[in-house]
Amino acid sequence: MKITNLPNENLKAWFNDRKDNTFIFFDTETTGLKRENNNQLTQIGAIATKFDLETFVFVETGRFNIKIKINDAIMKHMESEPDAPADKESEEYKKWIFATKKGILVYNHYDLVNSENYEDERLALEKFDNFLKTHNNVTLIAHNAPFDLSFIQFHELFIENAYEIIDSKYFFASIFFPTLKKMASHINNYQEILDRFHPKEGKKSASLKHIANGFNNEINKLKQKLENAHDAIVDCEITKEVFESGLKLLFTEVIV
C-alpha cells in the first residue's frame, strides 16, 4: 500500500475521477508507538463510504470493528508494570498513561479483563483484508496514515497490497490550513475560521483533536465523540466528519 498525496489544485476534479470509488476510513489502536518495540495492534476500525459530489458528504455503506487479543509476551511484560496511581488528576497518573502498556490500554478504552474473547492479531488482519475485498475501487483514508500502516504492513498480508491511501493529516497540514491562510490574507472571515483551530507551537495543529475542536460549532455531537477518542471506530467517525467538513468548506467557499 502506498500513500497518495491529494493535489493542491483541482481537488474537486480528483474526487470526480473517483466517483465510483469506495472511500474507507480506518484507524488502529496499539500497545505503543513503534511496532518493533514489542508492540501490537489492539483494535482495527473502518467505515466504508461513497462520496456524494453534490452534497460533499461521505455516505456510510458499512463498517468493521474488531478488538485484538494481547499476546503472551506483552502480558508477561505488563506483570512488572505498576498499577495505576489512585489520583487520576495527578501528574503521576498522566505519566503512567503514556509510559506503561497498562496505561496505554486504559487510554485506548481496552477491556483487558475480557480480552481473551478477542481475536488473534493475524486473524483480525485477515478479516480486515476480507472486509476491504468486499468493496470495489477502494481508497483508504486515515489520519496520520504512516503510523497505522507501520502496524498493518508489518504482516506480509498487506505488504504488496495496492490500495490507494490518503492521509487526512497531510490534507489539513498541506492543503486545508494553507488555503485558509491564503484566503485570510485578504478576507477577514477566513481569519475567523482559521482562529478556531488551536495553535500548537506557534502553528496550526494538524492533530485530529485540534482539527475537531476547530469544527465544534459545525459538527453535531463532536464534543461527545471526542470524549471517546482513541477508540478506533470512534476515531474513524471523527476522521470522516472532520475530513468531510474540511472538503465541504473548500468546495463551497474556495475553488480547489
Give your account of this protein's structure.
This protein is α/β, with parallel strands linked by helices and 256 residues long. It has a single domain (2-69, 118-253), classed as Nucleotidyltransferase, domain 5 (2-Layer Sandwich), CATH 3.30.420.10. Helix content is 44%, strand content 18%. The protein is built from 12 helices and 8 strands. The chain has helices spanning 11-16, 72-78, 91-99, 101-107, 121-133, 145-152, 156-159, 168-184, 188-195, 208-214, 222-226, 232-253, and strands spanning 2-3, 22-30, 41-52, 57-67, 138-142, 164-167, 199-200, 203-204. The protein has a 6-stranded mixed sheet with strand order 1-6-5-2-3-4, sandwiched between helices. A hairpin with a 2-residue loop joins strand 7 and strand 8. Helix 3 (91-99) packs across helix 4 and helix 8 (168-184) runs antiparallel to helix 9 (188-195). The protein is globular.
